[in-house]
């Protein structure tokens, strides 16, 4: 019973983070399942089955708060489903040990860009409103879906920073669209796992409690992302991406850093991350105050009346 309660709490926290930042449900949940001895394929299958319900609830919640760009969902979700099915079907015969560090380096670069861009300059507005092309979203979805199925998580860590870095849609819509499209990915991955594993290796009680925790958290997360300022949200997402992928790199065979080096690195990143969020919060408040002053000055000047004195009409 304690294990089920713990899984329910993990499902709640993982979905709260995922729905607010566009990533981490699969990574968090799969990590716990692996820690208790579940084999990778069964752990990923369990998480993806739970995600069918949590992503549906999350998608509905984000839709109600107008956090979704449906064109993005269609362009990235369908290729993502194809990639997820392929990754789930061939997981037992594939190794991601070599690919994981390389992917982490790519994601770490994107995370650093997102953190610096949003912290130093706020929401990128130069491309805001421009469409995201299918030739960009299609391959991105295919890779993200494959990584998600083979790694037990990865749809958000791959998709969210890549779209955020483009600066073409607001962060809340990036997160809402990624969460909504993940429903297709979860269904495709689950079908693939049933083909590859059957159902005997899946504990459906674990699926149920992960699902319950996630469904409870979904509307709360959708509300949070609606009300968190984009600049602060971008800094927060960038920090999550950096911390997650640095952890993967330090523990990989490529680096294999000692425990004390890992701890020191995590602390340094945490300090920089906290300072970045604090700076973004300060700059957001300053910009908001400046906008308020400009609005008050505009009201004091009064409206411009056509045909005022001096008109020749």
UniProtKB/TrEMBL annotation:
Alphabetized, the UniProt keywords read: Cell membrane, Membrane, Transmembrane, Transmembrane helix
InterPro entries on file: TM_pro_TauE-like, TSUP/Inactive_protease-like
**One GO CC annotation, please?**
plasma membrane
Asked if the keyword Membrane belongs to this entry, the reply reads yes
Residues crossing the lipid bilayer are 72-92, 98-116, 180-198, 204-225, 232-250, 262-281
**Entry keyword Calcium:** no
Family classification: Belongs to the 4-toluene sulfonate uptake permease (TSUP) (TC 2.A.102) family.
Q: Report the protein name in the record.
A: Probable membrane transporter protein
Q: Where in the cell is it found?
A: Cell membrane; Membrane
Membrane topology per record: Multi-pass membrane protein
